[in-house]
């Protein structure tokens, strides 16, 4: 089974967690693209979706799923999204697709975060995948210097501007043994909009697609 097939299995398994007449928070990425296909198959059963990126919004609309503004929604029961890495505490690195800020906002509002991944995303210690950090463009050099003080090797992602008009710095060479503490520390650096650590708001349920089926971790 290919990695993409494992992603598809995890994504379709998420349908089980969607309640009738609910509004569904939708993440971003190739795994989520499979989830949007799955969601389209039950679109008459849901009220619509709140999207975390222009990319997902375009696909949702193309498949006839209503996209609602988060500000119009007082309650979001579920958020479904992928991850670049996930550890045993359901803490994640996200932002490989540069959508981390809106993803973190929608995840914060949702009652339940269902993370859909293939088994290659599971790790003991986060940090092998470079940590994406969204920065205000005028602060990118300053933020890079601050990241070096934390032991990271910062690399500006070339040619990428986020949906919010900002840049992404990928922080390489971090062994993240205390994700909660690092997330907080990065939040305190002026010029960083969002860092890709999802430790304060981890996933609640993880669906792991593998060649032997999809495992549910609660
Ligand atoms: C986008 C993300 C994605 O969830 C993450 O990059 C995983 O992507 P994929 O499902 O394509 O492997 O955080 O910003």
UniProtKB/TrEMBL annotation:
It comes from the Bacteria. GO terms for biological process: D-ribose metabolic process; pentose-phosphate shunt, non-oxidative branch. It catalyses: aldehydo-D-ribose 5-phosphate = D-ribulose 5-phosphate. Keywords: Isomerase. The active site is at residue 103. Substrate binds at residues 28-31, 81-84, 94-97, 121. Catalyzes the reversible conversion of ribose-5-phosphate to ribulose 5-phosphate. Homodimer. HAMAP family: Rib_5P_isom_A. Belongs to the ribose 5-phosphate isomerase family. This is Ribose-5-phosphate isomerase A. It comes from Arsukibacterium tuosuense.
């Amino acid at each position: 089974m290919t990695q993409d097939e494992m992603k598809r299995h995890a994504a379709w398994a998420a349908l089980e967690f969607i309640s009738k007449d609910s509004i569904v928070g939708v993440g971003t990425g190739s795994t989520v693209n499979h989830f949007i296909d799955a969601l389209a198959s039950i679109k008459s059963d849901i009220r619509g979706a709140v999207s975390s990126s222009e990319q997902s919004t375009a696909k949702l609309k193309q498949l006839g799923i209503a996209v609602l503004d988060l500000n119009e929604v007082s309650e979001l029961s579920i958020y479904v999204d992928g991850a670049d890495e996930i550890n045993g505490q359901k803490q994640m690195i996200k932002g490989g697709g540069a959508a981390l800020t809106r993803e973190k906002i929608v995840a914060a509002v949702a009652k339940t975060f269902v993370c859909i991944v293939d088994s290659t995303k599971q790790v003991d210690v986060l940090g092998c995948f470079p940590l994406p950090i969204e920065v205000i463009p005028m602060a990118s050099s300053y933020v890079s210097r601050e990241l070096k003080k934390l032991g990271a090797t910062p690399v500006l992602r070339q040619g990428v501007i986020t949906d919010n008009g900002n840049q992404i710095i990928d922080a390489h060479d971090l062994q993240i043994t205390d994700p909660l503490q690092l997330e907080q520390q990065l939040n305190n650096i002026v010029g960083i909009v969002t860092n890709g650590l999802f430790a304060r708001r981890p996933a609640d349920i993880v669906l792991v697609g593998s060649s032997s089926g999809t495992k549910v971790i609660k």
